[in-house]
Amino acid sequence: MYGKSPSRAGLLLLGIQLTAFWPIAAVEIYTSQALEAVNGTDVRLKCTFSSFAPVGDALTVTWNFRPRDGGPEQFVFYYHVDPFKPMSGRFKDRVVWDGNPERYDVSIILWKLQFDDNGTYTCQVKNPPDVDGLIGEIRLSVVHTVRFSEIYFLALAIGSACALMVIIVIVVVLVQHFRKKRWAERAHKVVEIKPKEEERLNQEKKVSIYLEDTD
């Protein structure tokens, strides 16, 4: 009796330790969190994950939708070995699988956006034995036109600065080219004038000698 107690205590302690370390192996979900798209267009809802367990046939992916105006949660998409599209509801014939589990990508594409598609899309991944973890969320806003964000303005500013630098470099190169050309033309003129000047001096010298001889 006493010989079994330590083994039971050891198993209990091991179980407690495994329970304590298990959350570390939970599935982690990565999404864009917030997304803006134009009405009538298609949008890719990107969702990737990480898991300590190898990806196999036990992997399941569930996409759901919570309307911004409230109401019950709605089914969007399900994946288990093969994709399963919704057979009815608002997302019928409007959602397709665009993921690759081997690359830890479980994204979907939503076609022909409508204004009532505004809301939160949730992405839940289970990869046994990793079944715990937070559910990824994407808050989708369907708008008439996409508003420029700070990133767009930053990209525009960087692009303008690069274009300005290119223009400055081109101007500097052209100025140096024309200066060199002008200097070359001046040097050529000097070379042409010098022989003429020497010829004139020689003529004057000859005339001077002739006059001296005449005297």
UniProtKB/TrEMBL annotation:
Top-level taxon of origin? Eukaryota
Q: Does the keyword Transmembrane helix apply?
A: yes
Kindly list the places in or outside the cell where this protein is found, as annotated in its UniProt entry. Answer: Membrane
Show which residues constitute the signal peptide: 1-26
User: Which residues does the UniProt record annotate as the domain Ig-like?
Assistant: 23-141
Where are the membrane-spanning stretches? 151-175
Q: How does it sit in the membrane?
A: Single-pass type I membrane protein
Which Pfam families does the record match to this protein?
V-set (PF07686)
Q: Which PANTHER family match?
A: MYELIN P0 RELATED, MYELIN PROTEIN ZERO-LIKE PROTEIN 2
Q: What is this protein called?
A: Myelin protein zero like 2
Its lineage reads: Eukaryota, Metazoa, Chordata, Craniata, Vertebrata
Q: Source gene?
A: MPZL2
